[in-house]
Write a structure and sequence with these properties.
The protein has 163 residues and is α+β, with helices and mostly antiparallel strands. It contains four helices and eleven strands, in the order E-H-E-E-E-E-E-E-E-E-E-E-H-H-H. The chain has two domains: 46 residues, no CATH class; 110 residues, Nucleic acid-binding proteins (OB fold (Dihydrolipoamide Acetyltransferase, E2P), Beta Barrel).
């Protein structure tokens, strides 16, 4: 899961990561905290400043909105796999098709605190807070920025405000 964690400095997180080891000969992944190989670690670094991100690349992806059953909860949820435009519709790797995909934040960027600098990945809910705008609203402006000077200015402002 990815809930809130106790704030730490980048140096503390980097020190914790030194204990991580790559598996040898089929052994289970282990190390500090006994993390499994497919386990995601979520951290809170406060205060931190975004020092760099690629403003020339779109910081979102287009996701499949098709409703599928969640294997863990049994409830319905959006597929959310990346979609590609296929003629007059969008299609994901599973074969779902839609006319209008949903945009979701996804990007990597550098953050810094008083102890160092680290590249991190950010995802939809967190980046909506960081950028101050829902991904779909930003994606609509991103798509128009080549032909609409107002949209271009709005995209640039989102990036400038985060540097």
């Amino acid at each position: 899961g990815g809930g809130p964690s106790t704030p730490a400095t980048l140096a503390e997180l980097q020190q914790e990561a030194l204990g991580l080891e790559l598996p040898q000969g089929g052994a289970e992944f282990g190390g500090a905290g006994g993390a499994a190989a497919n386990e995601m670690k979520y951290h809170t670094v406060m205060p931190a400043t975004i020092t760099f991100f690629h403003s020339e690349r779109q910081p979102f992806y287009r996701a499949c909105p098709y409703e599928v059953k969640d294997e863990r909860s049994g409830k319905m949820r959006a597929c959310l796999k990346k979609v590609e435009e296929q003629g007059n519709c969008w299609s994901c790797a599973v074969g779902h098709e839609c006319q209008t995909p949903s945009a979701r934040w996804l990007t990597s960027f550098a953050i810094a605190d008083h102890t160092g600098v680290q590249y991190v990945s950010g995802f939809d809910d967190t980046l909506a807070k960081v950028f101050g705008v829902p991904a779909q609203e930003f994606a609509d402006k991103w798509d128009r920025k080549g032909s609409d000077p107002v949209a271009l200015t709005q995209v640039e402002e989102v990036f400038k405000a985060r540097r």
